[in-house]
Fold this sequence. Notes:
By secondary structure, this protein is an alpha+beta fold. The chain has helices spanning 6-17, 20-32, 34-38, 42-46, 69-86, 95-116, 125-132, 141-151, 163-166, 169-191, 196-218, 244-251, 297-309, 338-342, 350-355, 400-406, 419-425; strands spanning 53-54, 225-230, 236-242, 259-263, 274-278, 291-294, 314-318, 324-325, 330-331, 363-373, 376-383, 395-399, 407-413, 430-432. The strands form 2 sheets. Strands 1, 4, 5, 6, 7, 8, 9, 10, 11, 12, 13 and 14 form a 12-stranded mixed β-sheet that branches. It is globular.
Amino acid sequence: MSEITQSETNKFREAFLANPTQRVGQRSVWKNGINNSAQNQSTFVENTPTFSIDLNTGKVANQKKSGRCWMFAALNTMRHKLSSDFNLANFELSQNYTFFWDKYEKANYFYENILATADLDRTSREVAFLLQTPQQDGGQWDMMVSIFDKYGIVPKSAMPETASSLDSTQLNEYLNKLLRKHAYILRTLVADHATASEIETKRQDLLQEVYNVLAMALGIPPETFDFEYRDENNNFLQETDLTPQSFFKKYIDIDFNDYISVINAPTADKPFMHTYSVDMLGNVVNGKPVQYLNLEMADLKDLALKQLQAGESVWFGSDVGQSSIRDKGIMALDAYDVNELFDVDFDTTKAQRLDYGESMMTHAMVLTGVDLVNDQPTKWKVENSWGDKVGTNGFFVMSDAWMDEFTYQIVVRKDLLTDAQKAALETEPIKLAPWDPMGALA
């Protein structure tokens, strides 16, 4: 091992002080901070919020202090269709309803994984991974489909938000505290050679506790409800005694088997034109498995463009915090020139960032537009779920170059795939480790 010597430090200090550009930068960073000092003003000129293809999607929603972006994004794509089909303005589906069932199902999925790994030592990587975060707000598109398929959807009026859905910090704290205790109970039963019947009885007792916590914090999901609304022409419509499933069938009626998750993971361990799944990733036991088709970035963008041109928005996942000006709603590679500010090369490739833990999918949003120049995309319109106080009334601009580097997943209709891509979709999925970056939850 190499120890830092005082002479080395003295050399570094003298080199810094001898550089007038670094001293100027130092004064700016002291006063303004790193990002404000490195912010590139030309980014605002190059990423104006105007687009040649611009879908009308209404006002943005607000996930508040929760990690439900993937859920909001999925429900927003449903809302766009419903609002268009039934001429509704500023309508929202209940994010709290799907939130309840997702957490309920995640608890049971956690139990199944704990039981499946009960023969492993508690300090094994698999068990440690499960206990680190027994459940969280985030998720994947296929996990949302599992909730839709099993529980349907309701309008926001049928199950509105609560304090714990608007800020899920305390709910997650206590729910994970409870689930870690439940893990101890289940692993102890297995170690004591309890029968399958005894373990199942205890599992149901534990799940009752989870249900009680969720019912207290989020409310009890409705089994039936009435739906009243006025359309944009002020016509009043009323539906009574709907179920979440009948509401979905009448007002959404989407076959999710027609859609596929496409990823761009340019790492050596994930060849393109192949499918992948992630071990221990899911929410509903026996629900839709999480599965991806890995494609080149040019192919991913081509599919997203085709779906927008067909008039349908696109669910997508990215690393939103990278090179992003949140208040202005701009995601662009040149948003901050930190290389020039520090005279240090921070740049890495997309594959390097994935392999070395610098980047992964952290946030899901919706593509609702794109600007084409000579038939090539230059920037994309993004519907976020952070309310209308950021960006342009809540909408963001994503440069095409930023999309290349920090977008990892989209959901598109299968019929948009080429014949070769459809054939690749039929390959047997390669199962990735639970901690693989492609298992990150938005």
